[in-house]
Design goal:
Elements lengths: L5 E10 L3 H9 L7 E8 L7 H8 L4 E7 L5 H15 L1 E7 L5 E2 L3 H11 L3 E12 L5 E4 L5 H7 L12 E3 H7 L10 H12 L1 E14 L4 H4 L1 H15 L3 H16 L2 H11 L1
Parallel strand pairs: 1-2, 1-4, 2-3, 6-9
Antiparallel strand pairs: 4-8, 5-9, 6-7, 6-8
Helix pairs in contact: 3-6, 7-9, 9-10
Amino acid sequence: MKYPTELDFCLLIPCYNNYQGLIESIRSVSYSRPFLVLVVDDGSAQPITSHMITNDVGDTMSVEILRNEKNVGITRALNKGMTWIQENTRARYTARLDCGDLCLPQRFTEQVNFLDANHSVGLLGSWCLFVDEITSERFTYKSRGSHEVISRDMYLKNVFMHATVMFRTDLAKKAGNYPLQFELAEDYAFFWRLMQLSRTAILEKVLVVCRLNRGGISYQNKGKQLAARWKVVRSFATKPLLTIVAFFRIGLLFIIPKGLNLRLKKMKG
């Protein structure tokens, strides 16, 4: 189905066996102008249907569903969604959200307004409030907002929380969507690609609430994810001194236990 009307944005949400989280995420979306929610059902045991979502959310927003008959992983699921958005909509921007994560009511209005007013910025994120599912502790993931600072900080960490980003749809197409060769760090690599093609920015305010899931892919695959992050830096880096600093920082994170690293993040937040 093609959407001939221009949309301010399309919100891309991949889902795999987390229907309740999906519904909670969709219910948190608030926006007054034309937009679309695109769900990529990546082979969930119970296929997600439009009828199910309408029953649980209502028909106040447009929701489209793509279905993979088998699970292919988040990178391929995201790219399937991105390609569909580029080929079937006139969405000026693409936004991201993960199942179970929640948007504050003003998120999309603030992000669209910022990108409309700053044409040189192609990738925009925000701060994110994490809630620990086990302890209920909260901490805010903060990043500095200007492109010049972001381009340095990206050597040391993924400045952009994936669930907070909005980017220009045509820029993502030019970048080639999410690269497949950086498993567990595909978002980090994608943001580097966008950063090479456009200016970036962070809205220095919390616009998304994310659940910290200790059983999640990132937390359980710390070593593999750090190795993937180093592979990304080596592939995109252009500043030798910062590359050396990144190497030592990633090496230190290999040594620090996951629990201690999490506590340090909470203290910084």
